[in-house]
Amino acid sequence: MLKRLGLCIVICMVAVLVSCSTQGNVGSDNSTVPSEEEKAVETIELQAFTSQEGSTGSVIGIAISEIMRKNHPSIRVAAQTSIGAEPLIEFDLNPDKRSSLIFISSQLTPSQARMGMTPFTSPIENPPLGLFTYGPGSSITLVTLNPDIKEIQDLTGKKVDIGPPGSNSYELYYPILEAAGIVDQIVLTPTEGLGSSSQALRDGLIDVGWTSLIPDAGPNSAINELLSQGKQVYFVNSEDQLFKQAAKNSGLTILPVKTQKGYFNELYKTEYDLPDRDINTNMYVPGFFASTDVPEEVIYELVKTLIKHKEELKNYHSAGAAMAKGMGQFLNKENMHPGAIRAYEETGMKIGIE
Asked: Which domains, from first to last, does the chain contain?
C-alpha cells in the first residue's frame, strides 16, 4: 500500500513539474509579443500659448492642435489663449516648462531673449527660435479716427496705445517714438490687446491705437468693426529715417513696409482711399516659437506634419492659405529652430524673410 502511495506521489510530482515546465515554455514564447501597454505610443504633450481669444493666432492655434491630433500618432498640442507678453513672461519665469512650450510672438523675440530685454528678466542662453509663421508679409500700424493725425510727430499731446510694455506692438513702436523724440510728449495709454485698442479708439478713450495688417488673412475684424459703425479709419506714417534710427538704437529687426495709397480699398470695401496716401507700416511677422529645450526631433515631426497637411489649414482661417504658401518665410536660419530648418529643407519650402 505504501509503495503504491509513494508511486502516486512521484507520478503527481512529475506531472506538476511537466505542467510547470510546459507553462514556462508557453510563457517564454508569449513574452516576445508586446503587451498592450508596450504597444501604446508615448504621447508628447506641447503647451501652445496663442494670442487673444478670437484673433487669427488663436484660431491658427486650434487648427494646429486638431491637425496634429488627426495626423500624428504621438504629438499633441494644447492651445491656450493669452494676452500681450504673457507667453514670453511664462517662458522667462518657468525654465522647467520650456521643454514642452511653444508660443506666438514676432521676429523680435530671439534678439530680445539673447539681450535680456523686457519682458525677459535676463539674457536667455537657449532663446526661443522660429517654427512657422501664419502671416508672411504682414505688418502693424498706428490707426486713428482723426484725419489730421498723419505722421508720428502729430502724436504730440495725444493719448496713444501701442500695447502693453513687452508686447510685440509696444516693442516695435516704442523705439520709433524714441527715435522721433516724442516719448515724453505723448500720453501712453496701453490696452490689453488688438480688440481692446479698437474699442478704446471707438469710445474716444484714446486718440491713436494700433492694429495688425495681414493682407492674405483677409479683413482685420478690429478695422471692420470701426468701419461698420460709420467711422473713417486713418493710418499714421513713420518716415524711413525713424526706422533706421529705431533699429540702430534697439538692436532689433524694425523695418518699414511700403504701403501704397488705396492698397486696402478692395479688402475693406471702403469708399475712400485706405491708406489715404503712401505710407510706411511696421513689419510684424507673427509666428510660433520654441527653444532648443524642445528636442529637435519633436519640432521636426511637428513642422513636417503641418507641411504635409498644410492644405487643411485653409479650413480654419483665411490666414491658413498664407501659412500654407509661406510658413517658413519667417526669420533667417540663425533664428530658426534646427528641427524646423530640417523639415523645411527636406520638403523644399523656402526659409527666411522676403
From this structure: 45-136+286-347 (3.40.190.10), 139-283 (3.40.190.10)
